[in-house]
Amino acid sequence: MLFRAAALLFLVSPAAIAAPRDALDPVVRLYRDFAWEAVIDEPIAGRGFLTESDAVWSRYFSPRLVKLLRDDRQCVSRTREICKLDFSPIWASQDPGAARLKVVLGETPATVNVSFDYPGNGKRIGMKILLVRSGAGWLIDDIHYPDGQQLKKILETME
């Protein structure tokens, strides 16, 4: 019995134990880098999340999600109208705002849960972030919202 326990400890290396925590990295960086959108009203502290370049989005998102975001932004530029996204996908709102933001590992190694209080009404918002592993580490591949919508499905819908 002692041998089996030692064998199990050997099979679960420190790298395997630490790997899921790495999934937090792109999500924490994303919210750290764009927190100003939710807390600074004026003056604007930089380019907004939805106006960023593919190079910036690629720091956090999978290539497929970057392409979908770019396609939507190009549609907005071309038509001068709302296309598929009518809200900030990282804040689940048209008017970003957040207090008590929390980023924790989810129920699988490829899931991160984000929650925060929306200051306008005090409602607790919870989102599930799905990640994929790439050569550069973990990248966000989808966001599931409290109302059941999913970012990829919103962006992939035909017009």
From TrEMBL:
Signal peptide: 1-18
Keyword Signal: yes
Name this protein carries in UniProt: DUF3828 domain-containing protein
Keywords: Signal
Source domain of life: Bacteria
Keyword Signal: yes
